[in-house]
Amino acid sequence: MTTSLPTLDQTQLSRAISLLDEEWLQHDPDLGPVMPLVLGRGVGQDWHKAGTFRHHLIGVARTLTLWQQPKHVRQLGLLHSVYGNAHVDLMKFDPKSERGRLQEAVGEDAERLIHLFCVMSRIEFLGELFKGNLKNDGSLIITLQGAPFELSARDVAAFIVVSMADICEQWYSWQDDIYMGYPDYKAQPAQQHWAAALWPGPMRPTTYRWGQISRLGHFLQHPALKNQLPQPPVFDHGRQVMAPGDEAAAAALYWSVMQQSQPLMSSAATAAVLEQAIKLNPWVAEPYMVLSQLHMTERNFDLGRQYAEAGVQTAACWGNSWDKRIGWDGWMSWGRVLLQSAQKRQWPETLNKLNNVALTPEH
After folding, report:
1. pLDDT-based confidence at residue 2 (cuts at 50, 70, 90)
2. Class of the CATH-defined domain 243-280+284-345
3. Region of 260 on the Ramachandran plot (φ > 0 left; ψ -120 to 50 alpha; else beta)
4. Which of 58, 92, 212, 356 has the fewest C-beta atoms lying within 10 Å of its C-beta?
């Protein structure tokens, strides 16, 4: 493979490692004081896609923190659905009577963004962006309570960044099936499509939503939006857009390896499939890590190190996993084990010893 691989940015890695500790949020000066109020509403008991509502809110906030977003955007991420919305029947705060309480907790500016993000149509917001209706000044016209409403460039930028984090935290193949074509989708009868309805399904990576994240990131390159917020460090900081066909093909190739559809006696064939998946979609971490392990199993530690480094760097830029069978913290931990093992040029030679691998302290 001749494509250059991502290399490790120690600053980005350190930022990611600091968020692996489950206690990071309570020590965060902007978000920590708000958490008791949110947890008091039972968010840890509510189902949400690939976990609980608590997992989702924290996961979105974690990505926004990793992307170095300002306080009001991170607070929006942590509380982005607490007034409920068209997709989630989880109203944790009554928008008719409790807006004042949330304003006391996060301030009027952040609360205004939270309320607007909940009551507006996110389908329409994404649809208008994808139709190319962003104005020269960065504003966007949507419909709110039956009337045209103009979102300012500042609000558009905040909603784009939070939408990127929101998608990457929760989306996988179960939602691909029930929302196929989102935001332009048609609701299908559950009884007729009962197999697609069974949660959580096979948990394949999404076949089209990461491409939409790349398009959202690219909107932040718009002259009126470019300096509104820090550019998320994904898709070459918003300069690259992934083609839908490439994303779908890469996901299929990766999943064929995970389902052991390749010749099990030929690691070379599997490596070639993973290389092609990476060529089509170099923006996600997990294929790099799987290929790293494959190379180290074959005692090719130099390539194993390169792919482990690429995987850890890419994961450190996201804050949430693409292959949601395992959470981001698990993939980050595994990637660091791979990288350290490759640097030491050591990898188990028997299957049972794989259970013993661990990250060892650096001296």
Report:
1. very low
2. mainly alpha
3. left
4. 356
